Amino acid sequence: MKQSPELLYLNLMKKTLSYILWPEPPYPLPYPLPTFIFKRQPIKKLLLFAISKTLNNLGKKRLQISITRHISEDQRIEGNFHPKYADTMIGLKRLDNLQYCIETVLSKNIEGDFIETGVWRGGACIFMRAVLEAYQIENRKVFVADSFEGLPEANVEKYPADKGDRHHMISYLAISQEEVENNFQKYGLLDNQVVFLKGWFKDTLPEAPINKLSILRLDGDMYGSTMEALEHLYPKLSKKGFCIIDDYGLVNCKAAVDDYRAKHKITAELKKIDWSGVYWEKEKDIS
Ligand SMILES: C[S@@+](CC[C@H](N)C(=O)[O-])C[C@H]1O[C@@H](n2cnc3c(N)ncnc32)[C@H](O)[C@@H]1O
Fold first, then answer.
1. Is the CB of 87 under 6 A from ligand 1?
2. Looking at the domain assignment, is residue 2 inside a domain?
3. CB-ligand 1 contact for 249 (6 Å cutoff)
4. Residue 114 to residue 163: CA distance in whole angstroms
5. Cα separation of 81 and 92, whole Å?
6. What pLDDT digit, counting tens, does each position of 243-280 carry?
7. Are 263 and 169 in a shared domain?
8. Which ranges of 59-200 would DSSP assign to H, the alpha helix?
9. 92: nearest Cα among 200, 20, 4
């Protein structure tokens, strides 16, 4: 059966955003070498350092040692690794789920905008905007909420579950707003239907200019980040709208979701997307 142009476009977007169309290119070993490389093998490290330095000098900083990395199709589908080049790390199954949820709210006319809390390079939000573009929807917005500087240090007093969390030390997770805007621009999808909410969720979400949501996608990894997004945004989710949790596979995120659902007596069926993602359709307003 022939696919419609809309579905062809959306399938191509998912493949491009997840980078499944290409083998993972080698990535350059930074020079000077980071401390974790050959930490317990000083001779190897010295040798590598000498080669790296010589190449760097000879090539006027344009010659580098690169590391090859094999990524299987299955890993791209499951989104269970940290990609170097993809615009999203959520994998194809969770992109398919996002498309299913959006198409469902569109077809049932469920009122509200879309938001992702925790966007990294922006890929999942770019895909939300692409779905609106595909179906020529102009009266819904995509909210893009992130610190654009990585995760916060744990607030252990308020969220003891986050004690010892080290996400804030991972510079790989800190992507600037400018880089995310450029990523939207690459796909021709940066316009006034995309609204950036820059800052910590605890500061931006209570004041966000959002009336109603039909898609609430949470990807903030920690207990606190998940709980803050639920507390400030779940009441704005329309009935029959979707709440999608990217990180239910992480103990702290799962605890926040379970606590919030228990506190507000949310009994809507929690459906599994893959090894990490779950979602539910909102059945009733919370008290
Ligand atoms: C795992 S990444 C998101 C991956 C992304 N959804 C994708 O499509 O690849 C987590 C993101 O959440 C953001 N984040 C987590 N907690 C936050 C908080 N409390 N306030 C603001 N940003 C937060 C980080 O900056 C990071 O960009």
1. no
2. no
3. no
4. 31
5. 13
6. 999 999 999 999 999 999 999 999 999 999 999 999 99
7. yes
8. 73-78, 91-107, 123-134, 177-186
9. 20
**253 near 223, Cβ under 8 Å?**
yes
Nearest CA to ligand 1 atom 9: 88
Ligand 1 within 6 A of 124 CB?
A: yes
Cα of 165 from ligand 1 centre, angstroms: 14
111 in the same domain as 224? yes
If asked whether residues 182 and 107 sit together in one domain, one would say: yes
287 has a pLDDT exceeding 80: no
120: its two tokens: 């990294």
Residue 241 parent element (H or E): strand 237-245
Rounded to 5 degrees, what angle do the CA atoms 227, 229, 230 make?
65
Instruction: Verify whether ligand 1 is closer than 6 Å to residue 150 (CB atom).
Output: yes
Distance 25 CA to ligand 1 centre (A): 25
The C-alpha atoms of residue 40 and residue 85 are separated, in whole angstroms, by 29
Residue 62 tokens read as 């344009």
CA–CA separation, 229 and 204 (whole Å): 10
Contacts 24+ apart (CB under 8 A), 62-69: 64/28, 64/29, 64/31, 65/28, 65/29, 65/31, 66/26, 66/27, 66/28, 66/29, 67/26, 67/27, 67/28, 67/29, 68/26, 69/24, 69/26, 69/27
| Helix-, strand-, coil-residue percentages of the chain, each rounded to 5 | 40, 15, 45
Which residues span the domain enclosing 51? 27-67
Q: What is the pLDDT of residues 200-252, one digit of tens each?
A: 999 999 999 999 999 999 999 999 999 999 999 999 999 999 999 999 999 99
Total tally of structural domains belonging to the chain: 2
Confidence band, pLDDT 50/70/90 cuts, at residue 131 = very high
Mean pLDDT, the chain, whole residue set = 95
